[in-house]
Design goal:
Elements lengths: L7 E10 L2 E11 L4 E5 L6 H9 L9 E4 L2 E3 L5 H6 L2 E4 L11 H6 L14 H14 L15 H14 L7 E5 L7 H16 L3 E5 L3 H7 L2 E6 L2 E8 L5 H9 L17 E10 L3 E8 L3 E6 L8 H4 L10 E4 L2 E4 L5 H6 L2 E4 L3 H5 L6 H6 L3 H4 L8 H14 L15 H13 L5 E5 L7 H16 L3 E5 L3 H7 L2 E6 L2 E7 L3 H8 L11
Parallel strand pairs: 3-8, 3-9, 6-7, 7-8, 13-18, 13-19, 16-17, 17-18
Antiparallel strand pairs: 1-2, 1-4, 4-5, 9-10, 11-12, 11-14, 14-15, 19-20
């Protein structure tokens, strides 16, 4: 290893799929001990670049790759790139569900004993525990990862990447590492990555959140339409607005709520909702009002969207929507849908969309029984609805016949929004509505929330993103131990963070 060489040197990487040039003459260099962010909208080429580096795809002729001064033969062999100290945490995490956390962390590193030719499970578990301890994770390494939460699965994948690194060497590539992490866990991850970088390990992070990029990275590379439009930009010299201009090619028009709150006559009320072990919550929302709900990890706010929509059974609680009153303990999703109560859940791929069906089929699903007959549901109204959503929310590509599973995350989220917006809901409930989407999609989605409120819908938005809450909410409710402990009127992001972490130590309280 050449101590004076770049940790990573990419030169003239291009990639075509058919006649489409998705990556066009990309070059970049990363130094030892540097945290480099790679940003750009969906479709800008970020994932393609990572897959070229990992050996999933072969770059066009003319590309060159160097690691620690060594020229790497292209296409890259996955075993060769790992031997050179480059590890990956992809968006899908690449975990094997039926294997334990320990087995996933140690996969590829097994050391059969010389005599019995069997794996030393105890040694594997010790190695896994050390890797998890570095992350401060309280995870049983013997548990199959299929039984772990999304946050814990992400932690296992990151532990596997760290396990492969020698101290002060190597490159870790993380694709949206905080997508399934809470604010607290993301802050812990930032600290871990900074310690690794300080020891000499290099980090490449793909992220959508500009605040996250500026908080964690030393420099930024920006891709737009497959080309590098900004390389090695120093984060200390950038603002979110300035970085957004690089990403979008124009200024970001921030979504803003109406200057005045709607009339304070309750249209939706929640009485005595049991949250957590002992919490009780009352919520009142006017027609056309957007109310946010947030708090620290485990404080109970994350369950509220599912309790008030019947997706989770509530021990106690009464919901009133206009003149209608329903006991949440006995309610279910179907009965609440009849009252105009709809949920846009956090996991669109699991709980929100049928990814094997088309855009049009997903959009029309909630209205099939009302619009169709048992033997025929009609097609024209479905085509009209899909065209409306595609146009109004800017779904790309604008093809209602495309399977939803082939769309980017941001466009899938637009389809999910449109699916429920067309029903003109009385009460719209959202959980992390912009998670894992790019800047332009975030703007479109928050604009859709504002438009729904403008049409008279009462909106409850549960989110850990303080920028989203500040952008569209008239009020924000802060939850602690299942109880609302503070109410903020049109707060800025700093006010929300201060309220959420009131009474906590100052360390790590960045928004």
């Amino acid at each position: 290893m050449n101590a004076d060489a770049d940790r990573l040197r990419i030169e003239h990487f291009s990639k075509r799929f058919g006649s489409t040039l998705v990556l066009d003459d990309v070059s970049m260099r990363i130094e030892p001990g540097e945290i480099r962010a790679l940003v750009g909208q969906n479709g800008s080429g970020k994932s393609t670049l990572i897959k070229l580096l990992a050996g999933y795809h072969t770059p066009e002729r003319g590309g060159r790759l160097g690691i620690d001064g060594q020229e790497v033969t292209l296409p890259v062999r996955p075993d060769r790139i790992r031997d050179l100290g480059v590890t990956f945490v992809h968006q899908d995490l690449g975990l094997v569900d039926h294997l334990s956390a320990s087995e996933n962390i140690n996969v590829g590193w097994e050391d059969p004993s010389r005599i019995l030719r069997r794996l030393d499970r105890r040694q594997e578990e010790r190695v896994a525990r050390r890797a998890l301890d570095v992350l401060g994770a309280d995870i049983d390494p013997t548990v199959p990862v299929v039984h772990l939460s999304a946050e814990a699965r992400t932690t296992v994948a990151i532990a596997r990447a760290l396990r492969a690194q020698s101290e002060g060497a190597g490159l870790i590539v993380l694709d949206e590492p905080t997508r399934a992490l809470t604010h607290d866990s993301a802050q812990s991850l930032y600290a871990i990555l900074r310690r690794a970088a300080d020891s000499g390990t290099s980090i490449m992070v793909v992220a959508h959140s500009l605040a996250e990029v500026l908080a964690i990275s030393d420099r930024v590379t920006v891709l737009r339409d497959g080309r590098v439009v900004g390389d090695g930009l120093m984060t200390g010299e950038l603002s979110e607005q300035g970085l957004a201009r690089h990403v979008l090619g124009r200024d970001l028009d921030e979504t803003a709520i109406a200057s005045e709150r709607p009339a304070q006559s309750a249209h939706v009320t929640v009485h005595g909702l049991a949250v957590g072990a002992s919490g009780r919550m009352d919520i009142s929302i006017s027609q056309g009002e957007v109310v946010g709900v947030t708090g620290r990890q485990g404080s109970g706010w994350e369950a509220v969207p599912y309790l008030v929509t019947g997706a989770l059974p509530a021990r106690t609680g009464v919901l009133e929507v206009g003149p209608n009153r329903i006991d949440l303990h006995r309610a279910n999703v179907r009965s609440l849908l009849r009252l105009g109560v709809v949920l846009v859940p956090e996991r669109r791929d699991v709980h929100g969309l049928a990814t094997g069906l088309s855009v049009a089929e997903n959009i029309s699903l909630p209205r099939l029984s009302a619009r169709g007959r048992p033997w025929f549901s009609g097609l024209k109204w479905q085509r009209d609805e899909a065209a409306d959503v595609v146009t109004r929310l800017g779904v790309r590509p604008p093809d209602p016949a495309m399977p939803v599973g082939q769309l980017s995350g941001g466009n899938q989220q637009k389809v999910l929004f449109g699916k429920w917006m067309l029903g003109e809901p009385a009460f719209l409930v959202l959980h992390e509505p912009t998670q894992g989407v790019d800047l332009a999609a975030r703007r479109d989605l928050l604009g859709a929330v504002v438009a729904a409120a403008g049409d008279g819908t009462s909106v409850l938005m549960a989110s850990s993103d303080v920028n989203d809450l500040s952008a569209v909410c008239h009020r924000v409710l802060v939850v602690r131990d299942g109880t609302v402990v503070d109410e903020l009127v049109q707060p800025d992001p700093d006010e929300i963070v201060d309220a959420v972490f009131e009474g906590m130590p100052q360390m790590g309280r960045t928004a």
